[in-house]
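User:
I would dearly like some help making sense of a protein record. Take your time, and here it is.
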Amino acid sequence: MKNLQFKDMIRRYGILIGLIGLITGFSVLSERFFTISNMLIVMRQTSIVAFLAVGMSFVILGAGIDLSVGSVLAFSGAVGAGVMQNGGIFFGILAGLALGTALGAFNGIVITKLKIPSFIATLAMMAIARGGTLVYTDGRPITGLPSSFAFLGRGYIGNVPFPIILMLIIFILAYIVLKLTRFGRYVYATGGNINAARASGIKVNNVIISTFAISGFLSGLTGMVLASRLNSAQPTAGMGYELDAIAAVVLGGTNLFGGEGELWGTLVGAFIMGILNNGLNMLNVSSFYQQVVKGIVILIAVTVAQSGKK
């Protein structure tokens, strides 16, 4: 009985224990790590992965996968920045969000209507969106953005960076949608058993398209935040971000086959990725070794989570 209780505790709270362990370890190794200023830096850096991870949570809970988020991020940021130069901040941000949502919805349509696996469909979109970014920018950064646009990625409300506040707002809204709305229940049902969901009257195709549209929207938002932070839209922005987003979701305990997972775990998973990056940089660990460490941590976390479920 005690063994079962221990495994259940690991399954439920293992990710939090891991986060506390990481913070404790880096605090011992570097006295500069656990300070208010550095924690704000970590949260601001984490917000980029967190936005993508929220969208990825919707997709994975619905038994899909989205490999295109990094490329959609770059394309949306570039188009938004281009429109912003002539049409102003409002229309620039609107264009970036609209493009991201449209590309995400297109992924969902291809998957549901053409019956193409999400892995293949989004892999194709990853190439299309990255190529579209390079064509649109001619391989060069888009600069000369309005100075007031900097608030989105570098602004403060009081002493708190605005991206952190935006991250919390996005997570609260996403949590409400998943836990307190009919659509949220439909997402879990579709990911848990698509045939049973369809038999119960759920329009599963609409649910799948919507989850990918949400992922695309948040990729577009991330593209705009990143362009604001860098004061430019980089054609290479977002490369490899899809892996960090997937890792955050998996670390948070969401089942890769869909239907099971908690959004708060995704947030913790995103912070683990951010703390790993920040802590290893503070310890002057080579970027080559950082990739190895991150891979080992992900492997251990997933192994522990699966052990707890068994």
In short: The mean pLDDT is 90.
